Amino acid sequence: MTSRNVLILPGDGIGPEIVAQAVRVLDKVNEKFALGVTHESALVGGSAYDETGSPLPEATLTKAKAADAILLGAVGGPKWDGLDMSVRPEKGLLGLRSNLDLFSNLRPAILYPQLADASSLKPEIVAGLDILIVRELTGGIYFGQPRGIRTLENGEREGFNTYVYNESEIRRIAHSAFIAARQRGKRVCSIDKSNVLEVTVLWKEIMEEVAKEYPDVELSHMLVDNAAMQLVRAPKQFDVMVTGNMFGDILSDAAAMLTGSIGMLPSASLNAEGRGMYEPCHGSAPDIAGKGIANPLATILSVAMMLRYSLDAKDAADAIEAAVSNVLDQGLRTSDIASEGNKVVGTEEMGNAVLAAL
Amino acid sequence: MTSRNVLILPGDGIGPEIVAQAVRVLDKVNEKFALGVTHESALVGGSAYDETGSPLPEATLTKAKAADAILLGAVGGPKWDGLDMSVRPEKGLLGLRSNLDLFSNLRPAILYPQLADASSLKPEIVAGLDILIVRELTGGIYFGQPRGIRTLENGEREGFNTYVYNESEIRRIAHSAFIAARQRGKRVCSIDKSNVLEVTVLWKEIMEEVAKEYPDVELSHMLVDNAAMQLVRAPKQFDVMVTGNMFGDILSDAAAMLTGSIGMLPSASLNAEGRGMYEPCHGSAPDIAGKGIANPLATILSVAMMLRYSLDAKDAADAIEAAVSNVLDQGLRTSDIASEGNKVVGTEEMGNAVLAAL
Ligand SMILES: CC(C)[C@H](C(=O)O)[C@@H](O)C(=O)O
Ligand SMILES: CC(C)[C@H](C(=O)O)[C@@H](O)C(=O)O
User: Fold this and answer.
1) Among candidate residues A236, A258, A280, the one where a domain is terminated
2) Is A197 at the interface with chain B, CB within 8 A?
3) Chain A 80-99, CB below 8 Å of chain B: which residues?
4) What percent of chain A stands above pLDDT 90?
5) Which of A28, A164, B166, B174 could form a Cys-Cys staple with A158, CB 3.0–4.6 A?
6) Domain assignment of residue B117, yes or no
């Protein structure tokens, strides 16, 4: 059997709490399905900075490169807001993405029927919602050079960043999107701002080119401002949306929030070999950290995604997803997704319930 | 009496139809309130390109510079999609913004109580919604240099744009936002991506600096991805949102769509002297152009905004807004905002109704 070595990165804020429950679930399916998964932990983000002076210590990066998959909680918090950009917790996350070449970020926005009430949108607008956002994660304006803040001749300062993509970068994320669409509704909508930004003119052109290799998948294009509107107006029109790093950051969060239960949504960040990092879509929620009330389900579902995409353990993934659904059917909810008539439970109780359902 | 010379730019798509109704309304209040407004028309956008080879002919720019205010319909459409970026209809609009230094774009997102049903959000989430988005309009990545598509040494192409702001650009839009907030709920939320983009680190810093001059106004900051989520989750938390050109494009469209009636929302683009260009928030809707069914109310309300902000004619502005409200009370709707029990009318009938109500 192949090695299955998982690196656990709890991170900051609620990270350690939710990851603890997800690891219990991983251990359980590991035993039940005899997966042979081993795991170890490492520091990342603000907690890594506090301990080592770096948000991405060498030791963590080395372990990450050796791992077959990574499970991340979340990074960041107001505690580190004053730090120089180069050592902020987010740099730990961005450093992992970039060093491991995790260019393909898959962010599903799915409405769980049991949680339909939690959405701020009308039920008929979101019932059955199932979108996949494919976000380019290692290029674009997040990593473009030159960047910085410089002083002009007149003594004023100027801040600048560079939004840049080359053909290969666009091509490989296009393939990710088309391949994902093949397993779903066979429709890709590429999001750009090609009426203003040259970089997205190239983006659009390469999407068209790659589309020719997937004649069974339909490609359409939409401007990013219109996409933001259409997500609010009629989100079910989308199957797969593919876009760059910055637009993807914005649109995937909006899409996740349409479901009203971002605490339920996992994500995967994959490299060309399908190795990847898995994490909840939500952040480190410093306001509720340490209170034992955070929702661990997005992290638990990230374990399922990890088993499916990187560890070739589809049955175990199915079992976790079924267990989560079962727990929701029982009416158990953490406070972020609770509505009238539900039993509100804490992080650990929710973990217990998923374990029991497995 | 000062001169009040208005330049009318019908533009493309539904532009000419909706502007025609707005001009009738302008003529009516001009007479009724003896405003002494004169107006003339000029070409812009795709229709200007078709006639002159340029989306912003010299003659139009000269007239625009001389005008006290500009009323624009909309520009663009699939007909011109294949054109080189430099002569696309959008360049007409961007050229006007930039040449007239219309850096301050005010985009209200208001829910008309009569149209509460039209929103895709639950009534309790949007009832009473009244947000003002202040978008920087002549800088940022829309105009940053260098930009383009170049061929790399390996033969591949690369697209690139530059997201850049200097202190003065940020400072003047900050003042716009704080001044606007003073006349409203006295809260400004500045939107950035300061955990990743240096240019927005400077943005955030200058916002803080300018805030000191407005001790009666509260300043907060939010990351753009979170802002997109919060607009969906709980939009009423915002009073004034201020942001750069690109984020403003995306967020203002999302905010407008929250109301479900983007066909109702006007916008103003002002320079340092308060001279400005007024236009509906919606686009040129080529799919319904020429059918006589487009909603002219956003353009009519843009006339009201113009009278208030640039032509010092508050009473006339109030009268138009009251007339629009009256027409909605009568149950008249264009098809984009109609729900059960409404009388559906066309563009011209809607214009007639507003004139009658005046
Ligand atoms: C924490 C931050 C750097 C990150 C991003 O902007 O990519 C986050 O918002 C995300 O979407 O994963
Ligand atoms: C037409 C286009 C160039 C324009 C923009 O992106 O600014 C439009 O979307 C807007 O918001 O006014």
Assistant:
1) A258
2) yes
3) 85, 88, 90, 94
4) 94
5) B166
6) no
